[in-house]
Design brief:
alpha/beta, eight-stranded parallel beta barrel, 9 strands, glycosidase, endochitinase activity, chitin degradation
């Protein structure tokens, strides 16, 4: 092999390595919420698509202020029956074997939860640790499976100042695996329900809901307000990764508010957000909308 040929070969190898590093640096994950529509299919089916790296089980919708905590997974299972939702443990384990993180999302958009004090927050934290994470309890709603973390989707209720204590309680857990803390704040900054919790710096991932909020949602005709909001989130919140939260279909948002067509997300939104070292990927609401619309399939290669 001549010197010129050798130099050319080395240049090609260097270019391929460089492109691989750039691709891996900019690459993000797709996160989806599952559990609020029985027509979305099973959790195993969701994970078998190969489209998602994180699945949030939605929701633990009743907790705090003296309430008995309870799951609401639409028609997937009845948490009040004898077997409750324990059959989901098989699905969850199947997902985890594929390297997919399964997170318990607490809260949601319906009244039924709140925190009344720091002690109340610690009690809720202990319940979550013992019933869904690495602790022990005779009444684990999802069986013996250990979830990967807890997602704060706090949109209603009261006691916002106490969610920081809940985050601290969950972060103190010293089990056999890491407990990921994630949150889904509304895009107006700071989020009125989660500003205290997010200020703790204990969260790993934050997926901001850039929809259903006129002042900061993504609109193809005017991306300036979204870009301004994104810059504020990534420059202010102490967190490893921040994700762009979007509805997976027009019907998944209120009056299509904040729905962005996939071609706009790929050509205009992703190139902008990928400039940040905190870019984590895209969060979709929800699996049913995505299954109907094929949103994640269309954007997967670009995320």
């Amino acid at each position: 092999m001549g010197n010129e040929t050798r130099r050319l070969s080395n240049s090609i190898i260097f270019l391929l390595i460089f492109l691989t590093l750039v691709s891996s640096t900019n690459g993000g994950d797709i996160v989806v919420y599952w559990g609020q529509n029985e027509r979305e299919g099973s959790l195993t089916e969701t994970c078998n698509t190969g489209l998602y790296e994180i699945v949030n089980i939605a929701f633990l919708s009743i907790f705090g202020s003296g309430r008995k905590p309870q799951l609401n997974l639409a028609g997937h299972c009845d948490p009040t029956s004898n077997n409750g939702c324990k059959s989901l443990s098989i699905d969850i384990k199947n997902c985890q074997k594929k390297g997919i993180k399964i997170i318990l999302s607490i809260g949601g958009g319906v009244n039924g939860y709140s925190l009344s004090s720091n002690e109340d927050a610690r009690n809720v934290g202990d319940y979550i640790l013992n019933n869904f994470l690495g602790g022990t309890s005779k009444s684990r709603p999802l069986g013996d499976v250990v979830l990967d973390g807890v997602d704060f989707d706090i949109e209603v209720g009261g006691g916002e100042v106490f969610y920081s204590e809940l985050a601290r309680r969950l972060s103190q857990h010293r089990g056999t695996k890491k407990v990921y803390l994630t949150a889904a704040p509304q895009c107006p900054f700071p989020d009125q329900h989660l500003k205290g919790a997010l200020s703790t710096g204990l969260f790993d991932y934050v997926w901001v809901q850039f929809y259903n909020n006129g002042p900061c949602q993504i609109e193809a005709s005017n991306l300036n307000k979204f870009q301004k909001s994104w810059n504020q989130w990534v420059s202010t919140i102490k967190v490893s990764k921040i994700y762009v939260g979007v509805p997976a279909s027009p019907s998944a948002a209120t009056a299509s508010s904040g729905y962005v067509p996939t071609q706009v997300l790929i050509s205009k939104v992703l190139p902008f957000v990928k400039r940040s070292r905190k870019y984590g990927g895209v969060m979709l609401w929800d699996r049913f909308a995505d299954k109907q619309n094929g949103y994640s399939r269309d954007i997967k290669a670009s995320v």
